[in-house]
Write a structure and sequence with these properties.
Mean pLDDT: 94
CATH superfamily of the largest domain: TATA-Binding Protein
CATH architecture of the largest domain: 2-Layer Sandwich
Strand order of the largest sheet: 2-3-4-5-1-6-10-9-8-7
Largest sheet: 10 strands, antiparallel
CATH class of the largest domain: Alpha Beta
Structural class: alpha+beta
Strand content: 25-35%
Oligomer: single chain
Order of helices and strands: EHEEEEHEHEEEEH
Radius of gyration: 20 Å
Low-confidence stretches: none
Distance between the termini: 16 Å
């Protein structure tokens, strides 16, 4: 069974170790959205690589929209450069922690979702509400959306190794179920 996956989004957090004046940042940068009455963070949009960073007054960051760790680093460096414009000097290199990877791909098979929902543990399938089957792996922690055409989405992993391991397990379990059929 052949399968492929490509990363669509990485959600990562980092701490700058210094407080940030969000009002000052919002006033000095045009690529920001800041409505403190609605949400305590400022949204900073980065053009290249296309991403969004939530900046909190504590100096904590949440970066979304990137497709690799290298892109996450690049985006955080751009945020640091923008902070220098409002005299916030970041001296320590921020530690980046991946919180979630979203990947999409496919298995070279048409899938009988009704059958898989019965044969696999930890599944949810309600075709009247959503056309995909939700399949949860416990170790490594990953959640798959499986579609009858073989397309899939994987979320919940924190690194490439977990992603690949999850995909391998999914393939093994589907193969086993099909052999028992």
């Amino acid at each position: 069974m052949k399968s492929n996956l490509s990363v669509q989004n990485i959600v990562a957090t980092a701490s700058l170790g210094k407080p940030v004046s969000l009002t000052k940042l919002a006033r000095s940068q045009s690529n920001t959205e800041y409505n403190p009455e609605q949400f305590p963070g400022l949204v900073l949009r980065i053009e290249k690589p296309k991403s969004a960073v939530l900046v909190f007054s504590s100096g904590n960051l949440v970066c979304t929209g990137t497709k690799s760790i290298a892109q996450v680093r690049e985006v955080i460096n751009q945020v640091i450069k923008q902070l220098m414009k409002i005299n916030v000097r970041i001296t320590d290199k921020p530690k980046i922690t991946v919180q979630n990877i979203v990947a999409s791909g496919s298995i070279d098979l048409k899938l009988n979702l009704n059958y898989l929902a019965l044969a696999l543990e930890n599944t949810e399938y309600e075709p009247e509400q959503f056309p995909g089957l939700v399949y949860k792996l416990i170790e490594p922690n990953a959640t798959f959306l499986l579609f009858s055409n073989g397309k899939l989405v994987c979320t919940g992993t924190k690194n490439k190794q977990q992603l690949n391991e999850s995909m391998k397990l999914l393939n093994e379990r589907i193969k086993k179920v099909l052999e028992e059929k």
